[in-house]
Specification:
Largest sheet: 5 strands, parallel
Number of domains: 2
Helix content: 40-55%
Number of helices: 8
CATH architecture of the largest domain: 3-Layer(aba) Sandwich
Order of helices and strands: EHEHEHEHEHEEEEHEHHEE
Structural class: alpha/beta
Strand order of the largest sheet: 2-1-3-4-5
Mean pLDDT: 82
CATH class of the largest domain: Alpha Beta
CATH topology of the largest domain: Rossmann fold
Distance between the termini: 41 Å
C-alpha cells in the first residue's frame, strides 16, 4: 500500500526533487506551489502526510497548517530554511508533528516521515475509508493499486490508475482539467491540459466499449470530465 504524501513548496526544483525521491522510496506524491492549491488538493485526494514549507507566498505555511487542521487531522512535517521561522512555528504551538530544516539529508527526512506515519497509524488505525471505490461495475482499490471492470482486472499504467482513481473519488461529479492536473501530475504540469486529454483517451481505450463514443468518462466541454456511476450501454 503506497502512502500518499503532499509536498507543498514554492521552489520548483525542491518539489521535483522531493517528489522523485519519495516516489523512489515507494510513496505516492502530489505537489503544490502554494497553500491555497495545497488545501484544494487535500480536499480532492486526502494525503496521509503533508510536507509543508513555512515560507510560502500568499498564505504562509503557518496559516496553511490552521487550514489543514480545520479540514482533517492529517500529520504535517514543517520544512523551513530559516531558524527564525522554526522558532516562530514552535512558539505558536500550532501542532505540527515534526520539522526539518533545509538543507536536509534525504535519509533523515525519510526516517522522520516513517516515524510520523507510524504514530499516525497508531492514533487512527482505521482512518483510511477509501480503500475500495465502486462505480457501477468498475471497482478501484487504491491500496492494492488494482482496478477491475466487470470482475476483469484492468491493465493500467500508474498515471492511468491515478487518473481513474481521481475520477472515481468524485463519481457522478464534474472534475475540472486543472484539478486533475494538480491531483494526478502536480504543480509542474499546470497549464498543460494536453497531458490530461491524452491520458483520458488512453483510459477510455481500456474501459469503454466504444472509446469513440464514451459512456463512462464523459466530457463536459469547457469544464472537465465526469465518471458516470451508471453508464448507458452503447446502442447497437
Amino acid at each position: 500500500m503506497s502512502r500518499h504524501i503532499l509536498v507543498v513548496d514554492d521552489d520548483a526544483l525542491m518539489r521535483r526533487s522531493l517528489a522523485y525521491n519519495l516516489e523512489q522510496a515507494g510513496y505516492r506524491t502530489s505537489t503544490a506551489a502554494d497553500a491555497e492549491s495545497a488545501l484544494r488538493l487535500a480536499r480532492l485526494d486526502p494525503p496521509d502526510l503533508i510536507l509543508l514549507d513555512i515560507g510560502l507566498p500568499g498564505m504562509d505555511g503557518l496559516d496553511a497548517l490552521r487550514g489543514f487542521r480545520d479540514e482533517a487531522d492529517t500529520p504535517v512535517i514543517f520544512v523551513t530554511a530559516r531558524r527564525r521561522e522554526l522558532d516562530q512555528a514552535l512558539g505558536l504551538e500550532l501542532g505540527a508533528d515534526d520539522y526539518v530544516t533545509k538543507p536536509f539529508d534525504l535519509n533523515v527526512l525519510l526516517a522522520r516521515i516513517k516515524a510520523v506515519l507510524r504514530r499516525s497509524e497508531r492514533a487512527a488505525p482505521s482512518a483510511n475509508t477509501a480503500d475500495r471505490l465502486e462505480v457501477g461495475d468498475l471497482v478501484v482499490e487504491p491500496p492494492a493499486h488494482v482496478a477491475t471492470l466487470g470482475g476483469e482486472r484492468l491493465d493500467l499504467a500508474p498515471r492511468e490508475f491515478a487518473l481513474l482513481h481521481a475520477l472515481a473519488l468524485h463519481a457522478g461529479q464534474i472534475v475540472s482539467v486543472d484539478d486533475l492536473l494538480a491531483e494526478v501530475w502536480g504543480a509542474e504540469y499546470q497549464g498543460e491540459p494536453q497531458v490530461v486529454y491524452v491520458h483520458i483517451r488512453w483510459l477510455r481505450e481500456k474501459i469503454e466499449a466504444d472509446p469513440n463514443h464514451p459512456h463512462r468518462i464523459i466530457t463536459v466541454r469547457g469544464v472537465g470530465y465526469k465518471l458516470e456511476p451508471h453508464p448507458q450501454a452503447p446502442e447497437d
